[in-house]
């Protein structure tokens, strides 16, 4: 099998990992090298550096052979898919080649488990070490870690990688036992805890070697079992608090050929994944707790976004007076983000905020106006029930599908 055939298989196999968002990369300038303009097929994803830059990464697996048989995974031992394996040298060479052609700014590398967890982790570390020490590679490296590998190997990975991720995969221990019995939630969390401690030690001691400066992330698969959004977001909240994760990624379960028993034959609506990302964003950036966003429900609504759903369920908190409320309260108004909330507070130092100011800030006025008071506007709140507002503001519940 030549390198391009391996690349086709191992880039395609990596697309199921959401820990960095997949996407076709636009063709980038090839620095004048003729005939090198086509970054064809999959294999490029985007991620964000600690300073907020968006970077393109070569996203591949070292191998899609795997000793494990996680039921939701296309690369599981019993899956009938074409298999391939790169050597660490091949991954190094591909990364440098793509980097020199200006297709990518770095590498996202994951792997099935081959021979043993330690052996697999050693191979991943070997790639990162070779890139950094032999080739002085200064691009971005995101390494997936094998949770039950020797902590010393994970420590080495953190010295070479910008970001590490340990996939929790399923939000509950019961789900993991049922669908990935060879994995242990305890071991996964232990690995996350070790990474947190190593990062804190590195940050506290200026002369200490750097350790995963872009932090750690994880992914949860949504819809592979019956777990509801309340449990998923509750798990995410705990992971953010306990392990200081930078991001939890949600990946809608994708039905796979020859599905084994115990996993659904249909994908959940992609809109559900989208609502989870919106709720996650509100938890990280707006101070919402998972329980606040869910209320008494098990799942987030699909017809309206979670912030609007929360506002409709808490009409007693509205309308918000934009000339008096603090920024954090204004940012809870549907259609007003944190940046505009700060602009509004800034603006009222000079004069009173008026309806047209919101238009100038490009706020979606249909969404905003039932919930705010300005110097020249007050909504006819008492006349509008939450149900009719919801009907008026609901987006089409598009049932996006993975297939
Ligand atoms: S260990 Fe990873 S690659 Fe292997 S079957 Fe499980 S999820 Fe898939």
From TrEMBL:
SMART domains: Elp3
UniProt keyword terms in alphabetical order: Iron, Iron-sulfur, Metal-binding, S-adenosyl-L-methionine
Organism: Caballeronia hypogeia
Cofactor: [4Fe-4S] cluster
Record-level Gene Ontology MF annotations: catalytic activity; iron-sulfur cluster binding; metal ion binding
Lineage, top ranks: Bacteria, Pseudomonadati, Pseudomonadota, Betaproteobacteria, Burkholderiales
Domain spans labelled Radical SAM core: 50-289
Domain of life of the source: Bacteria
Record's protein name: Radical SAM core domain-containing protein
């Amino acid at each position: 099998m030549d390198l391009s055939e391996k690349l086709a298989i191992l880039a395609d196999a990596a697309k199921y990992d959401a820990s960095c968002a997949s996407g076709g990369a636009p063709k980038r300038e090839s620095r004048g090298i003729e005939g090198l303009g086509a970054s064809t097929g999959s294999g490029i994803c985007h991620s964000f550096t600690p300073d907020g830059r968006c970077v393109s990464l070569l996203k591949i697996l070292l191998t899609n052979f795997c000793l494990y048989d996680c039921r939701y995974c296309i690369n599981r031992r019993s899956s009938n898919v074409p298999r391939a394996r790169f050597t660490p040298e091949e991954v190094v060479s591909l990364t440098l080649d793509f980097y020199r052609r200006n297709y990518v700014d770095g590498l996202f590398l994951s792997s099935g488990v081959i021979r043993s967890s330690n052996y697999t982790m050693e191979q991943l570390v070997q790639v990162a070490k070779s890139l950094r020490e032999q080739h002085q590679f200064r691009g971005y490296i995101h390494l997936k870690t094998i949770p039950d590998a020797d902590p010393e190997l994970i420590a080495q990975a953190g010295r070479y990688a910008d970001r590490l991720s340990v996939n929790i995969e399923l939000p509950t221990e019961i789900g993991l036992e049922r669908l990935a019995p060879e994995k242990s939630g305890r071991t996964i969390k232990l690995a996350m805890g070790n990474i947190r401690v190593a990062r804190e030690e590195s940050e506290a001691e200026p002369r200490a070697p750097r350790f995963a400066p872009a932090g750690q992330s994880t992914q949860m698969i949504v819809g592979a079992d019956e777990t509801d959004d309340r449990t998923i977001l509750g798990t995410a909240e705990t992971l953010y608090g306990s392990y200081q994760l930078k991001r939890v990624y949600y990946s809608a379960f994708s039905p796979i050929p020859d599905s084994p028993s115990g996993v659904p034959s249909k994908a959940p609506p992609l809109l559900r994944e989208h609502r989870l990302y919106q709720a996650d964003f509100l938890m990280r950036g707006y101070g919402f707790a998972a329980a606040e966003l869910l209320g008494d429900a098990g799942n987030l609504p699909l017809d309206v976004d979670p912030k609007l759903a929360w506002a409709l369920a808490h009409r007693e908190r509205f309308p918000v007076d934009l000339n008096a409320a603090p920024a954090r309260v204004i940012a809870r108004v549907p259609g007003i983000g944190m940046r505009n909330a700060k602009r509004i507070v800034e603006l009222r130092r000079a004069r009173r905020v008026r309806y047209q100011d919101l238009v100038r800030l490009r706020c979606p006025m249909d969404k905003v106006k039932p919930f705010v008071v300005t110097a020249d506007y007050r909504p006819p709140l008492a006349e509008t029930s939450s149900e009719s507002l919801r009907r008026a503001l609901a987006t089409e519940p598009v049932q996006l599908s993975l297939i």
